[in-house]
């Protein structure tokens, strides 16, 4: 992705901007109004895609960390770092929009139920990952140790998904069994939002990877 | 040398170091005691039913004292080049992990031998045999992650601060499950209701033990 030319990157940004524009239109003007909660329910279309992309980004970081440990090529480490940073931002957005959603449905900004707790833990893990990278000075060791931490940390994620099924919980089970609790119209809008958020993630990722590559070039120049 | 013997030799090394200086165990004991005392003072002023906060206090004390032990266990290797000596040993790098894990487990368990009865006394709890496996499994989970994370922070700046920052998010699910189980057992809840937490605790222990064992050599290499 770093070797993409400027044109590729601009194209991705353009596509991403268009889909987000359409998504906003769909969310506010096309999606049906929910019966009990009214317009407040529309935060759902921001909350679910943000959480989804957050997990996707952190999964990418996890896989990149594994690949880095195996192959020791610095591009995997750059991918791990970039995706972790972006993933952290999306998880933060997921938690914040989630608490608006929580205030609307349950009347509280936060509660220590399994799904929210594990999301907070995931956030803390990747915040610590970024802190770890800053705290280590030796070049090779820093990437290696951070990669191991990312692998250890990602183990928390499947538990997050399972938590919503293992315990009686107040977090709404949107996709239980085969069907879903959304009307088809809502589902279509949601899926479109997820796609547009993913495209946005890819656009930001390509930018961040470019920055990481440039940083590494500067480091190398400095030592020559 | 067989695997078990190699691990045991490593553990003996740590035990004999501790026997000579005695500084780690004593600081862990005293710190855990102080944590329990401070918490029981603070909560006693506000909480009606003290036994409600007992599981939380117990596990916080174990976690904090455990972190003290974990921090020291690798730092003392770094000074005087002992870490290089360990790396030169003709043992599998992952066995170094097992050796450290067992010695950390021993030290934390010794601390718990003091802290748990103290909590029972201060909070007026009744003993239940199920608490023994719960405390053991929780300690194993905590030490499994703690050993590898303390190896990670040996070379970091501000390592005393980095260890808690890195360790707590990873170990939180273990602590939550342990607190839920301890509280459930002490309250006399039927096993069916809390057995999910036991599954989580066992699952986490197994996962973290395996992953840490495999990943340790990447952390410790030069």
Structure in words:
The complex is a heterodimer of chains A (224) and B (222). Chain A has 224 residues and is mostly helical. Chain A has one domain (6-222). Chain A is built from 7 helices and no strands. Mean pLDDT of chain A is 83; it is low at 175-180. By secondary structure, chain B is mostly helical. Chain B has one domain. In chain B, 84% of the residues lie in helices and 0% in strands. Chain B is built from 8 helices and no strands. Chain B has helices at residues 3-21, 23-44, 54-78, 82-88, 93-123, 131-153, 159-187, 191-220. In chain B, α2 (23-44) packs parallel to α5, α3 (54-78) packs across α4 (82-88) and α7 packs antiparallel against α8 (191-220). The radius of gyration of chain B is 18 Å and the shape is globular. Chain A binds chain B through residues 69, 117-118, 121, 124-125, 127-128, 131-132, 135-138, 141, 144-145, 147-149, 151-153, 155-156, 159, 166-167, and chain B through 145, 148-149, 152, 155-158, 162, 165-166, 168-170, 172-173, 176, 196, 200, 204, 207-208, 211-212, 215, 218-219, 221.
Helix and strand arrangement:
The complex is a heterodimer of chains A (224) and B (222).
Chain A: H1 6-30, H2 44-71, H3 74-105, H4 114-135, H5 139-154, H6 156-166, H7 184-222
Helix pairs in contact in A: 1-7, 2-3, 2-5, 2-7, 3-4, 3-7, 4-5, 4-6
Chain B: H1 3-21, H2 23-44, H3 54-78, H4 82-88, H5 93-123, H6 131-153, H7 159-187, H8 191-220
């Amino acid at each position: 992705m770093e070797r993409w030319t400027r044109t590729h990157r601009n194209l991705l940004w353009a596509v991403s901007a268009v889909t987000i524009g359409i998504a906003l239109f769909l969310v506010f003007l096309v999606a049906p109004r929910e019966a009990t909660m009214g317009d407040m329910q529309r935060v759902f279309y921001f909350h679910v895609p943000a959480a989804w992309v957050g997990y996707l980004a952190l999964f990418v970081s996890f896989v990149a960390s594994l690949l880095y440990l195996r192959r020791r090529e610095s591009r995997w480490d750059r991918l791990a770092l970039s995706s972790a940073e972006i993933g952290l931002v999306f998880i933060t957005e997921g938690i914040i929009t989630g608490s608006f959603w929580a205030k609307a449905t349950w009347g509280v900004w936060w509660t220590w139920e399994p799904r929210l707790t594990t999301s907070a833990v995931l956030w803390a893990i990747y915040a610590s990952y970024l802190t770890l990278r800053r705290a280590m000075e030796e070049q090779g060791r820093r990437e290696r140790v951070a990669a191991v931490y990312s692998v250890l940390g990602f183990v928390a994620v499947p538990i997050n998904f399972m938590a919503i099924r293992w315990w009686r919980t107040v977090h709404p089970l949107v996709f239980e069994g085969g069907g879903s609790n959304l009307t088809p119209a809502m589902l279509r809008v949601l899926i479109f939002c997820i796609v547009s958020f993913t495209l946005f993630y890819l656009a930001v990722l390509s930018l961040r990877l470019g920055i990481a590559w440039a940083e590494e070039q500067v480091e190398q120049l400095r030592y020559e | 040398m067989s695997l078990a013997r190699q691990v045991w030799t490593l553990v003996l090394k740590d035990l004999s170091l501790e026997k000579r200086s005695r500084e780690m165990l004593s600081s862990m004991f005293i710190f855990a005691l102080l944590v329990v005392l401070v918490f029981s003072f603070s909560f006693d002023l506000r909480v009606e039913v003290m036994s409600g906060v007992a599981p939380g206090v117990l596990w916080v004390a174990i976690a904090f004292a455990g972190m003290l032990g974990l921090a020291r266990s690798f730092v003392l290797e770094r000074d005087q080049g002992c870490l290089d000596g360990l790396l030169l040993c003709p043992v599998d790098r992952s066995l170094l992990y097992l050796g450290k894990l067992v010695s950390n487990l021993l030290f934390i368990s010794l601390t718990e031998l003091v802290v748990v009865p103290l909590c029972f006394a201060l909070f007026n709890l009744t003993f239940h045999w199920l608490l023994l496996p719960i405390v053991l499994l929780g300690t194993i989970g905590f030490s499994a992650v703690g050993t590898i994370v303390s190896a990670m922070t040996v070379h970091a700046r501000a390592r005393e601060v980095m260890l808690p920052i890195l360790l707590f998010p990873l170990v939180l699910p273990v602590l939550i499950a342990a607190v839920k189980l301890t509280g459930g057992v002490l309250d006399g809840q039927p096993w069916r209701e809390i057995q999910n937490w036991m599954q989580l605790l066992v699952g986490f222990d197994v996962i973290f033990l395996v992953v840490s064992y495999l990943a340790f050599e990447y952390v410790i290499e030069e």
